[in-house]
Amino acid sequence: MLTRTLNPASLRPTPESVVDCLNPDAQLDDGSLDPDIVVNLLGVTYTYEGEAAPVLRNISLTVNRGDFVLILGPSGCGKSTLLHLLNGSVPHILNGKLEGTAVICGKIVADTKVADFATDVGMVFQDPDAQIINTRVRDEVCFALENLCRRAEEILICQKQALDYVGLSGFGDHSIFELSGGQKQRVSIAAVLASRPRLLVLDEPTANLDPAGMAEVFAVLARLNREYGTTIVMVEHRVDELADKVSRVVMMDQGAIVFDGSPRAAFAARRVLHSGDADVVPAASWFPQVSELAIDLAAASQRELPSDQVPLCVEEAADLCAAWVIPAEAIVVSARPVVRSRKPLLSAFWWVSTRHPPTQYTSEERISQGSEPARSRPISAMYFRIPTISS
User: Fold this and answer.
1) Pairing of strands 107-108, 96-104
2) Residue 140 and residue 69 share a domain
3) For position 91, which CATH number holds?
């Protein structure tokens, strides 16, 4: 066995992984001697006890140090089971039959107890209230370190840095009950980071959060991965604010991996997946809206959309639309305005790109009626009317 002992005195932020470089218990077992490979799955099939059909089917997946992997898929496709495999809960707690090779942080899952993954893999779940067990922020962050019998001075330094990492400096004495949902989830992440695991695993961490709390959590995860090289594997369905932050996208369907690649390649085409009861579910349900917009505009303007140009955020979509022009032969479709009997509460235009207003062109209606000759126009000049709401 190869053991790597690190100096716990060097407890300050570094450009390296905040969940790897500071762990004095970090070890590499004989399952894999490559410290850059954090997850190594080869032909993994798993069947729960008492079930006839496997929930994971021939899964092969490699996650390298510093990767930010987003796992997508419909309900019942095996996403959560795959995450539980990463910390040994599968098969040691959630009993069943494991086939194939699974090596996590250099340790063979089938031969390693769940407790032995405590300092290697940190997990954050959907509901922070179900994961937090203390009433004060500092006590929650220190809890795991106290159970690992770390020195008191080391515990205090680690908990302070963990709170700094998630943007909660000075919150140590706050009551958990005073925090918002987003702040509670950031405390859960800090409590995991305090023990310095090599791998951070999250199972829909924003499922119970409002948009503000979701933005807080995503910003923390992006910063951890970007600035400290934290290795992250996450299941999440809210991809609009996340697509441009991850380095890889893995799509699952009926227990198997059907796509593994870059985010742009993942969202360059629509796919059809299946839910747990075999109903067909469009994978576009988890596509960023800007990617779907680009696909539709490419089809409407009769042009090809290369996968490396698929936008992942609003800014990229605006730049892409500004660079495109609509060919003269493209069909312009214009919906006629709806006459309302009462004054609408809301009427607005949403521009594809506010930075390039179509001041030099007439309206779509005049062009379609032939009052002005059709000509090539920037796609950013197109606009869409938000339906009005009657009072």
Assistant:
1) antiparallel
2) yes
3) 3.40.50.300
